[in-house]
């Protein structure tokens, strides 16, 4: 298991665990990040990530991406 920030661009990954406070988990869940779901990094800009999750593109900060384990 590793944080999403270490994944390769364009590689599809399965979310294994989501860390952080209950608020952070709920926020990520609302964006479509759920355990068992897939996530693909589209681009990295200044450490922040643009990812494809549930057929939608979402921008998340590096801090948020560190809490998503793949």
Write the layout of secondary structure elements.
Layout: E1 12-14, E2 17-18, H1 22-31, E3 38-45, E4 48-53, E5 56-60, H2 62-66, E6 68-69
Antiparallel strand pairs: 1-3, 2-6, 3-4, 4-5
How would you describe this protein?
With 70 residues, the chain is of the alpha+beta class. 21% of the residues lie in helices and 37% in strands. It has two helices and six strands; from the N terminus they run ββαβββαβ. The chain has helices at 22-31, 62-66; strands at 12-14, 17-18, 38-45, 48-53, 56-60, 68-69. The strands form two sheets. It has a four-stranded antiparallel beta sheet. Strands 2-6 form a two-stranded antiparallel sheet. β4 and β5 (56-60) form a beta hairpin. The mean pLDDT is 95.
Quaternary state of this entry equals single chain
The biggest sheet amounts to: 4 strands, antiparallel
User: Based on DSSP secondary structure assignment, what is the total number of beta strands?
Assistant: 6
Shape: globular
- The low-confidence runs, each spanning 5 or more residues with pLDDT under 50, are none
> How far apart are the first and last residues' alpha carbons, in Å?
5 Å
Number of helices: 2
Output the helix-strand order: EEHEEEHE
Radius of gyration: 11 Å
Mean pLDDT: 95
- Provide the spatial order of strands within the biggest beta sheet: 1-3-4-5
Percentage of residues in helical conformation: 10-25%
Strand residues, percent: 35-45%
Indicate the structural class. alpha+beta
């Amino acid at each position: 298991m590793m944080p999403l920030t270490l994944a390769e661009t364009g590689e599809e990954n399965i979310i294994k665990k989501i860390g952080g406070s209950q608020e952070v988990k709920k926020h990520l869940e609302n964006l479509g990040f759920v355990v068992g779901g897939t996530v693909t990094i589209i681009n990295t800009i200044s450490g922040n990530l643009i990812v494809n999750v549930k057929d939608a593109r979402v921008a998340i900060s590096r801090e948020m991406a560190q809490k998503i384990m793949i």
